[in-house]
Design brief:
The protein is an all-alpha fold and about 290 residues long. It is flat and about 75 Å long.
């Protein structure tokens, strides 16, 4: 009980009792809050059959499925293009040519600082682009610039000795990046890349502001255009779990990738065949 770590001392009996009390109080408070929310939902009649009847109609179901498909389509385009743009900008920032490096840095810093909603509106209104390309372009510019910094930081995080050893062997910069630095950097970058893709998935909901018929836009149409006492809360209760589920699925995938990346196959023990007694080495029989 007297042992300690480098960060903190192991709590004693009184501290553990106090932490246990804090946990119980917090749990009770959270349960009470959830109970109060459920009470308000029941008290305002959010679970009445009239508010949930629209979801039984085939047209409503098709509208939601079409909106979900449009959301996934926009996310797929934005994810692929963001990875491509991030790779190009990262290569520019790592370039030995100063003009290329400065231009890439300017683009990365500009698009990272610009709010994604402003970029989407500018492309949609000023450039008069259709909703889907405008949404994808805005998401690509923002997330691509963020991923460029992730790629650059991942490559620079590799030990400097790896780079120097590769150059000492006579490898060119392209070979050093392709065969030495990038394979090692990917191990550290993958979880962060997937986490940024979660942000891109959530930001696809901004498409409803430019009339793109994605999932949130479909829910808005149901809540505002049907004469069923404006079932806004039921629509939220249907759409929110699906959004949360997709984001949690990507987050789980990021954690799964991180766990697999920790298990480096190159560090696993190799099975060696035991040497039988009397086995001669490759150098030949011992001299008398």
């Amino acid at each position: 009980m007297t042992d300690s770590t480098a960060l903190y001392d192991i709590p004693g009996p009184k501290t553990r009792k106090r932490h246990r009390l804090y946990g119980i109080v917090s749990t009770v408070a959270i349960v009470a809050l959830l109970g109060w929310i459920l009470y308000l939902l029941f008290d305002t009649g959010q679970f009445t059959a009239a508010k949930w009847t629209p979801f039984e109609y085939k047209g409503i179901q098709e509208l939601l499925l079409r909106g979900l498909g449009n959301t996934l389509k926009a996310f797929a385009y934005a994810a692929v293009l963001s990875l491509v743009l991030g790779t190009v900008l990262a290569c520019g920032r790592l370039s030995d040519h100063r003009p290329v490096r400065w231009l890439s840095t300017l683009l990365v810093e500009f698009f990272r600082a610009m709010p994604v909603l402003v970029m989407i509106f500018f492309i949609f209104v000023a450039l008069k682009v259709q909703p889907l390309p405008a949404l994808v372009a805005g998401l690509t510019l923002y997330n691509g610039s963020v991923l460029a910094e992730v790629f650059r930081a991942g490559v620079n995080s590799v030990d400097r000795g790896q780079r120097e050893a590769a150059y000492a062997l006579g490898m060119r910069k392209t070979q050093v990046m392709t065969h030495v630095l990038v394979p090692q950097a990917v191990r550290a970058m993958l979880p962060t890349i997937i986490s940024q893709l979660v942000v891109a998935l959530k930001d696809t909901s901004l498409g409803y502001l430019i009339t793109y018929e994605e999932f949130l836009h479909a829910g808005k149409l149901i809540a505002s255009n049907l004469d069923y006492d404006l079932p806004f809360i039921p629509v939220v209760m249907v759409i929110s779990p699906i959004y949360i589920g997709m984001c949690m699925l990507l987050s789980w995938f990021a954690n799964w990738v991180a766990r697999r990346q920790r298990r480096n196959p190159k560090t696993e023990a190799a099975e060696i065949t035991p040497v039988d007694p009397g086995t001669l080495l490759s150098g030949g029989p011992p001299k008398p």
